[in-house]
C-alpha cells in the first residue's frame, strides 16, 4: 500500500511539472458569412490536431490546446480552397496570438494588427485565477474595412471597389520605418506612424505596430479562451 501511495504521489507531481493540463479554445463565428479559421503552431511547438476548418455563421467549435502551446489563430474569408493546408496567415489578417504557460507560468495573448486587418476578432478569457495577470478581454471589434485609409485599402475586382481588408503600413509601403526593420529595428527608433495611430484609435486593445507592447499584451493563469469573429 505504501508503494502505491508513493507512486500515486510521484505521478501527480510529474503531471503538474510537465504541464499535463490542457486549455480549451472555443472558436465562434458571429459574422453573417462563413469564416475559415486557420491555426498555426509556433516554432518548437507541437502542431495541433487541426490546422484549419470552416465555420458557418453562428457556428462554433471547441479545441483542446496542449499546455505550453504557442501559436496564432486567424479568420480567412472568401475562401474556396482546402482549409487544412497548414500555411501561415497571409496578410492582411487579424491575428489572435497565444503563448500558454510562459514566463511566470502565465498565458500571454493578444490581437495583432501588425500584419493588417481583415475581420473583427476578440479573445475573452474565462475562469482564470483571480488577481493574477492582466486577465481581461483583448481584441478589435470594430469594422475597419469601411474606414480604412485609401493607401491601405485592399479591394477585389468583383467587390465593386469595397475594401475586403486593410493592409498594414509595412505591407502597403514596404519601408524600414513602417516595418520596424534595419535602422528602425528597435523600440527607440521605430515609432508609431499615423497609420498605426489609425489602428490604435479604432482598436486600443490590439497591437497597432511591432513595438506596441504596453497596452496590447494580456496575461492570465489557468484560463480558457473564447475567440470570436465579428463579436
UniProtKB/TrEMBL annotation:
InterPro entries given in the database record? Osmotin/thaumatin-like_sf (IPR037176), Thaumatin (IPR001938)
According to the record, the signal peptide region is 1-22
Question: What are the disulphide bonds in this sequence?
Answer: 31-230, 135-220, 140-203, 148-166, 170-179, 180-190
Kindly provide the name given to this protein in its UniProt entry.
Thaumatin-like protein
Keywords on record: Disulfide bond, Signal
Q: Which SMART domains match?
A: THN
Species in which this protein is naturally found: Brassica oleracea var. oleracea
Q: Which CDD domains match?
A: TLP-PA
Gene3D superfamilies (UniProt xref): Thaumatin
Amino acid at each position: 500500500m505504501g508503494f502505491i501511495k508513493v507512486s500515486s504521489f510521484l505521478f501527480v507531481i510529474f503531471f503538474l511539472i510537465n504541464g499535463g493540463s490542457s486549455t480549451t479554445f472555443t472558436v465562434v463565428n458571429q459574422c453573417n458569412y462563413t469564416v475559415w479559421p486557420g491555426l498555426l503552431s509556433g516554432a518548437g511547438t507541437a502542431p495541433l490536431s487541426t490546422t484549419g476548418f470552416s465555420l458557418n455563421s453562428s457556428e462554433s467549435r471547441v479545441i483542446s490546446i496542449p499546455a505550453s502551446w504557442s501559436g496564432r489563430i486567424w479568420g480567412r474569408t472568401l475562401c474556396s480552397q482546402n482549409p487544412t493546408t497548414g500555411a501561415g496567415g497571409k496578410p492582411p489578417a487579424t491575428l489572435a496570438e497565444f503563448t500558454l504557460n510562459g514566463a511566470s507560468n502565465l498565458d500571454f495573448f493578444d490581437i495583432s494588427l501588425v500584419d493588417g486587418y481583415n475581420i473583427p476578432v476578440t479573445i475573452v478569457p474565462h475562469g482564470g485565477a483571480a488577481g493574477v495577470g492582466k486577465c481581461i478581454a483583448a481584441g478589435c471589434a470594430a469594422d475597419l474595412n469601411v474606414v480604412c485609409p485609401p493607401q491601405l485599402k485592399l479591394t477585389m475586382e468583383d467587390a465593386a471597389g469595397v475594401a475586403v481588408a486593410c493592409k498594414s503600413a509595412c505591407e502597403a509601403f514596404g519601408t524600414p520605418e513602417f516595418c520596424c526593420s534595419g535602422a528602425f529595428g528597435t523600440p527607440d527608433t521605430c515609432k508609431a506612424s499615423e497609420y498605426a495611430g489609425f489602428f490604435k484609435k479604432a482598436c486600443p486593445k490590439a497591437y497597432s505596430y511591432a513595438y506596441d507592447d504596453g497596452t496590447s499584451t494580456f496575461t492570465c493563469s489557468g484560463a480558457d479562451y473564447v475567440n470570436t469573429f465579428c463579436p
